[in-house]
Amino acid sequence: MRPSRAWSPEAELERPTRVSLTDTERKKPRLVDLGTSYSFRSLARGPQGQALGLGTDGAIHVIDQNTGRSRRRSPAAGEWQQARPTLFVRGHVAYVSEPGKKALHAIAVETGEKITSFTLPKSTSELSGVVAGHRLRNVPSPHRP
């Protein structure tokens, strides 16, 4: 067993270019070349199950989950940067952070069109979200008896 190394800004980054699509019925993975490198924070699923990857080329790559073929490449962010951009999908909208510009972009998953972009007060390092009005059932709450 090798000792773990502490993170360093000079450390060599991994630059994967292939993603694995797994057919859960056949229990078989398939490697698909994205055509660009990506980060672990830049993979998501679309509302129809399509595989999405934000590449270091600044585009969202849409891959058909059944064929493994590229369906579309949609520009989303500028040149790759540190901290890395993040992809987050909620419903039919893909949100892409652009930390170097303190920007957040909303992209329509089905068309690849940019819905809106805006500047944030601070740079982002992670993205997440919830569905409006969603309530958890049978979960104890400190605010309910």
Automatic annotation (TrEMBL):
UniProt region (Disordered), positions on chain: 1-27
Protein name: Uncharacterized protein
Lineage: Bacteria, Bacillati, Actinomycetota, Actinomycetes, Kitasatosporales
Domain of life of the native organism: Bacteria
